[in-house]
Structures are given as C-alpha cells and as structure tokens.
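ingest -> validate -> predict -> emit
validate: passed (alphabet ok, no gaps, 233 aa)
predict: started
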Amino acid sequence: MGPLTRRHALHGAVALLAGLAGCSGSNSSSVSVGSGSPTAMERGSSSGRRLTDPEQYTLRGPVEKQVVQTPSDDDETEDDRADERRWRSELVTSRDAADSLTFGDVDGVDGARAFLDETDFRQETVYIEQRIVEECWDTELCYVTWGPEKIETDYSRTLRPVDAACSTDQEDIVVSLVRIPEALDPKRVTQHGSSMGGRCRVPPDSRDNGANESSAAEGTDVEVTTETAEESE
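emit:
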C-alpha cells in the first residue's frame, strides 16, 4: 500500500483562530458532501494546476473519535498523534491504499467509501486532509492547487445554521476527501500547504495588486505549511 505505509512524518505549524458563535447545545456528528461538476474550472498557476470546484466528500465527527485511520497510524507514537491532531494529510493513489483505510463510527462512511470506489486511480488521486474546527463552524474548500511536488488547499469558514446543535467550547474533526484529476507520485509530493479565510478569495497568483490588498484587509488567514524529509535508501 505504497503511499500510506511509506508516509513520512509531517510536522505542521498550525494556528487556528477561534471564533465564538451564538449557538449552544450538545455535541453532534455530521457529514457534508460537496461535488464539483465534470466541467469545473481548471487554471494554471505558478505551482501547477488548479481546480476551483473539485469533486470532494467531507466527513465530520467529534474530536474523541478517529474519523479516518491508515495502517501507518498503528506505528505512530502518542506524540506523533498529538502533532497531527490539528492538521494532517494523506495521498491515496491506489485501490489497495483506499481499501486499507479504516473509518470511525461517524455519519456518511458509506458515502466516503463509494467516493473512493468511484475514483479511477489510473488517472486520479484522492487527497485526504484533516483539520480541527470549532463545533459551530463549517468549512468550504475554495480550490486545490497541485504539481509534481506540492499540494495546496484554501478554505473559507462560515457559521453553521442556527438550528445546528453545537457548543462554542467544543471542537470537531473535519476530514475532506478531494479528488485530483491526475495520478500523482507520492514519493515526489513532499510539500503540503493549506490556508483558511473568512470567505473564498481569488488565488494569490491570479490577483492584481488592488485585489491582493483588498483581500489582505478583509480576510483572516490560517496558514499551514509542511515539508516532508526524503527517506534514506
């Protein structure tokens, strides 16, 4: 199971900005599904190709549950798990790798498995990204950018509906399964990046100076950048 048993240790520097929401209630598990159309826009960028409406599936559950687990998780120490608690990523590049994933007891698992089953790994890759969010907030994937050595994502954050059962002092795990229309080599993809703002914005390399200044003034970003070390042979 190439990419998952050979997964490098990722050390992400993460700073998530907490937002207080005017809602309260008990903990809840939920699932949301996003699916890009076959004609979703693709653009070139300085770091590779970009998809602004990628096909995706999202699972959500309370932090005490393991939403998605890979075989390599069994080899991790408690410190490793703590480092990856707030943000982690995986590349799934084969049918065997997809079949080896274990899902926790959360809503939407059947849909996640169907999403993986429908992926043609001869020409597609599934990028799994996990992050911790406040229970009263939702995230939306704005775009994914990828190249031979790097994958980057950008998200917006919005309050959940007023009738959603949530608490301002609780957190959830949100796991995004993003289908990238290219068969990537996990040995080459050693850099991963993610950002989050208050709304979806024009990608940095598509802005003119005025647009860039406006976005910087209006948006609040959370940046995550990781780089894996090369394995010694």
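Confidence is low (pLDDT under 50) at residues 1-41, 208-223, 228-233.
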